[in-house]
Amino acid sequence: MARLYPDLVEDILIIGALSCGKIPGRKSILEMLTLTPIIGNSIFRSIMQWWHLDEARFTLGMRTAVFNAKIDGMIPAKMLSELRQSNYSMMWQTANWVSRQDNSQHLHEVQQSVSSFIGLNDPVVPADHQLKMLQSLPSSHAVLLKTGHILMIEAPEHFQKAFWAWMTMSKHKRNTR
């Protein structure tokens, strides 16, 4: 949106991983199966139903996305109940679409200031990949947190402090970084 409608976007904050959708050497067998046409949707739905069956399985699955394996009690109970209500087919379609995107050749066209919160130990989208993507932008900076993929759950105090610092920073200061 920032590239196509620059007059509508003042600046950008990325919370989560900046990725081009294709991370070299990062495709697991499970990912390849779930993204396979025809059977991928069924496999994805089965995995999600198993993962969301109870709190213990959910916590086990979340451990694959975080840096601190001791996440017991960190994940809001509401998250699991809301995920259980999700349309797994729509989630699969979204994941499938994201995996096919590659906007890296257009990043240099984004003229707005881009800030990104990056988990240094992100097992889903490695920090070095995210930093490489940020370097393609004319005006960007990263806030590095000692977390995995789910910044706001793993380090809520640090995340909140960084978020409010970004919110209160003047536009001018963000654009001169």
Task: Map the helices and strands.
Elements: E1 11-15, H1 29-34, H2 40-51, H3 55-62, H4 77-84, H5 88-99, E2 113-119, H6 127-135, E3 140-145, H7 151-154, H8 156-168, H9 171-175
Parallel strand pairs: 1-2, 2-3
What does this structure look like?
With 177 residues, the protein is mainly alpha-helical. It has 2 domains: 6-20 and 106-175, Alpha/Beta hydrolase fold, catalytic domain (Rossmann fold, 3-Layer(aba) Sandwich), CATH 3.40.50.1820; 29-99, no CATH class. The protein is built from 9 helices and 3 strands, in the order βαααααβαβααα. It has helices spanning 29-34, 40-51, 55-62, 77-84, 88-99, 127-135, 151-154, 156-168, 171-175; strands spanning 11-15, 113-119, 140-145. It has a 3-stranded parallel β-sheet with strand order 1-2-3, with helices on both faces. The protein is globular and about 45 Å long. GO terms for molecular function: hydrolase activity. This is Alpha/beta hydrolase. Keywords: Hydrolase.
Distance between the termini: 21 Å
CATH topology of the largest domain: Rossmann fold
**CATH-derived architecture of the largest domain:** 3-Layer(aba) Sandwich
Instruction: Please give the largest β-sheet.
Output: 3 strands, parallel
Count of the domains: 2
Q: How many β-strand runs?
A: 3
Q: What series of H and E elements makes up the topology?
A: EHHHHHEHEHHH
Strand order of the largest sheet: 1-2-3
Radius of gyration: 18 Å
Roughly what is the average pLDDT, rounded to an integer? 84
Per the principal axes of the C-alpha atoms, what is the gross shape?
globular
CATH homologous superfamily title of the largest domain: Alpha/Beta hydrolase fold, catalytic domain
Give the proportion of residues in helices.
40-55%
> What is the CATH top level name of the largest domain?
Alpha Beta
Number of helices: 9
The residue ranges in which pLDDT falls below 50 over 5 or more consecutive positions are none
Helix/strand structural class: mainly alpha
Note the beta-strand portion. Answer: 5-15%
Organism: Parasulfitobacter algicola
Keywords: Hydrolase
Protein name: Alpha/beta hydrolase
InterPro entries: AB_hydrolase_fold
